[in-house]
Amino acid sequence: MFELAELRSFWVYLSASPLLGLTLTLCAYAVAQAMYARCKFSALANPVAIAIALVCAVLWLSGMSYERYFAGAQFVHFLLGPATVALAVPLVRQLPRLRRAFLPVTLALVCGSVTAIVSAVCIVVALGGTAELARSAGPKSATTPIAMAVSERLGGLPSLTAVLVIGTGIFGAVTARFLFGWMKIHSHEVRGFALGVASHGIGTARAFQVSAEMGAFAGLGMGLNGVLTALLAPGLIPLVLRWLGV
């Protein structure tokens, strides 16, 4: 009974504090990591997807608004910036290899970025989506801040773009291993770069779980694709929409 009373007092304190969102986020990710380890680090048990599901379940069951949750969780959101910049450290260690692979990396980047934008717009239109939805989906393979800014500039829905970006990252992190195996791609350089271009930060996090080399190339792919998407999407998406007659 004493433990239940202690727990109740702790909940009352947290529920009246912005720390609730932060505590919920960290606890959800800790549980997701434990489940990920329990599943022997299977790609199907992606910790980001599990943590999102746990947070959504708690918000739904407790009736807590997203705004109230984010008042505490914004501290984690703030740390995304420094964490992204920190990806440059392993990247610098791979600079000699990057210089030798400059041409194939550049060609792969352009092909990957254009394919991601054009295919997203075409799929949305083919499924009967509006031009607004297509503008929201076009930059989905870039990292979240860039994708939301591009979507807003083109007249899309930034909040929908953020959801699509997260979904794209989780899908890539879960399926990449099987896809690379089916295509018999074993190089960590190629795997990492493709994962970063297609699945941004979530794919990069997955790559670092495999090896530092794969993570460095994933970070490179994520960063370069973010810049290229910001440059290409404003011209390419309206062009594809006009071509499709939308």
Automatic annotation (TrEMBL):
InterPro entries: CidB/LrgB
Keywords: Membrane, Transmembrane, Transmembrane helix
Localization terms from the record: Membrane
GO CC annotation: membrane
Membrane spanning residue stretches: 12-32, 44-63, 69-89, 101-127, 160-180, 216-241
Membrane topology, from the record: Multi-pass membrane protein
PANTHER family: PLASTIDAL GLYCOLATE_GLYCERATE TRANSLOCATOR 1, CHLOROPLASTIC, PUTATIVE SEROTONIN TRANSPORTER
Name of the protein in question: LrgB family protein
Lineage: Bacteria, Pseudomonadati, Pseudomonadota, Betaproteobacteria, Burkholderiales
